[in-house]
Amino acid sequence: MKRKTLYRILAVLVSASLFFVACTKKESDVRLSPKMATTLSSNVKSDAATVVGYVIAQGDGFTEKGICYNTATAPTVSNSKVAYTGTATTATFNVTLTGLAYATKYFARAYALEPDGTAIYGEEVTFTTLPVVATLTTTAITAITGNAAASGGNITNAGGAEVTARGICWATKTAPTVADNKTSDGKGTGSFVSALSGLKGNVTYYVRAYAVNSAGTAYGPEVSFKTLVDLPAVTTVDVTSVNKTTAVTGGNVTYDGGAAISARGVVYGTSANPTISNTKVDGGNGLGAFVSNLTGLQKFTTYHVRAFATNSAGTAYGADIQFTTLADIQTWNIPGNYVAASYPGAGLSDWSPDKSPQVISTVAASDKLEGYVYMANASNEWKFATQMNWNGPNYGDGGGGKLDGNAGNIVSAGPGYYKLNANTTTMTFTAVKTAWGVIGDASPQGWNDETALTYIPEMRVWQGVVHLTAATIKFRANHDWGYNYGSDKADGTLGAGAANIPVSLESDYVVKLDLSHPNAYTYAVNRWGVIGDATPGGWGTDTNMTWDPVAKVLKVTLNLTVGSFKFRANDDWAINLGGDMGALSQNGDNIPVATAGNYTITLDVSKPVYTSTIKKN
Description:
This protein is mainly beta. It has six domains: 3-128, Immunoglobulin-like (Sandwich); 135-226, Immunoglobulin-like (Sandwich); 239-324, Immunoglobulins (Immunoglobulin-like); 331-433, Immunoglobulin-like (Sandwich), CATH 2.60.40; 435-525, Immunoglobulin-like; 527-616, Immunoglobulin-like. The chain contains two helices and 53 strands. A hairpin with an 8-residue loop joins strand 28 (384-385) and strand 29 (394-397). The protein is elongated and about 145 Å long.
């Protein structure tokens, strides 16, 4: 009942009370016309509700009072009714209506029967009963495997409210709920199909369909099933201790699939995803970790390895891990009396095999070792040491270029940059002093002769600033094509007798040749410029620097504005220098310019750490 109606009823009651007080006649002499009122309690449920009636005026008396109700408006006592049977101590009376239909709108009125059978009614009130949980069934379990199954459900009655979620729930205990594992299979009534996944093998599960509406969560009947034996779960351990013909790996069986692990181990081969039909190394049985040693491998060969585990359901494999056995490469050390003087600050020392330069062979020619060694003394003595100690064999000069384990030291007269070669098949060696330069149609002397580079011991590279045109170059030593390097990919790596190296633009280039790492020789050909918002080209265009042969620095004179700049090679940010001008660093901070004017900027590339100057003209 609305609040205004209630207030009106109360006002009538008050007026009636005042009337009885003010009246001077006897009570038996005054009779008001019978009148009823109705209001609704808040106690509405899915199948019941409480309605309150008020006797405003009883007239000549009532033989019965109560609440009548119906699903249509204006209910009467000929519809459903509930008579009040309690003791009437006040004008109000409460009647609880039961057996109501859920989620249904009802109309109700208080009523009273006069002695002559006439019924009088209070105001009509309405209420809607609450919904109930849905009614549903659980579908039988099908498509059972070791780790999955199929089920579902059918919602036959929504319970008077929208079904907002549905699916199945499952657990290894009875009466599973949505707090356990569950699927989400849409909403609404009707049938649905659900997929159970992530199950364990050989395990009994309990399943119920569920449906959620505003009244709560309902569950279908419980069904149970048992999964089949599942495949095991196994991981492959990283490969370690890789040698020329051996390696160590293994695995870990973390799940048995619900049956005993009858076999485990690793399989390997030269093709991806090897199986137990390939080479197999037994690792025992049961759960847990195991170690497998691989032997009899081929040198410098790529292998694939997988752990495996077998139970009654079959064989499962871990991840495919790839590894490559070591090549048959030999490394010899070159100890001697020249090391400390030739490699200051490098942590090397005289006559210490483990602290000396080396020569190394290649995969393609494992018996041929080579390397470049700088010797600074007027007379340099040295040996080939085949180990990082003096345990030997150690080879000296047996005469005529022969290696001899009983001979004395090898002597190289005069300082120089020596190319050392040793052949373990013929047991011979050579030590040739080399002087390197740039040759090619891009170089100053064309293909006629090389333009010399200078060896810088502190940097362990041959370097020079050479004016090159847009053509090609190679590196050559001793005016002899027997010593030349090019680059097939033009990517900074070198190969003996490889292709010419292209030069795209004419400019002054800082050319570097690094032969300090045996059989891994590299080069760099860089032109330098300045770039920044202080320069004429801003941050979009470099202003190139040129070589000053007197000062032996790269130099540029230009007008600068207030701002900043950096040094950049080859118009590309891959190589850029900034920060402290006394020790420039890759990707260093921008160099500030506080005052506009004409400046000369230099870049000194003669040391391992480049330096620069800036002077206002």
